[in-house]
Sequence to fold (109 residues):
Amino acid sequence: MFNCKVYLHLPLEEYPYTEIASYDFDPGLQIGDKVNVKDLKWQKIQDNFYVLAAKSFSFEAMVIIRQYIIEPKRPTKDSLFYLEIGLEMADKEKLPELAEIIKCNESNS
Fold:
């Protein structure tokens, strides 16, 4: 089974990274590629995952990590092949705004 997960890396002590997208295909993003993330919405749910919330956030990011991970087959589950893509926000000045959105939504959940 294949799965691609896209993470946003944040230089925030409480929120070093969070998954923002998941695909069953390789989107072809390479290290150094720039992407626009549109209308990302935050709300903390169980196990630190996030879902849609009231306020959205858009930003430009750059791919900083592209890593393949293999989890061999085990008696209780199939083998897995992951592609993890890490993004970093291009506009660091937006970090306080993003941190505030995350904190507000976390306190409301």
DSSP finds one helix and five strands in the chain. The longest helix spans residues 95-108.
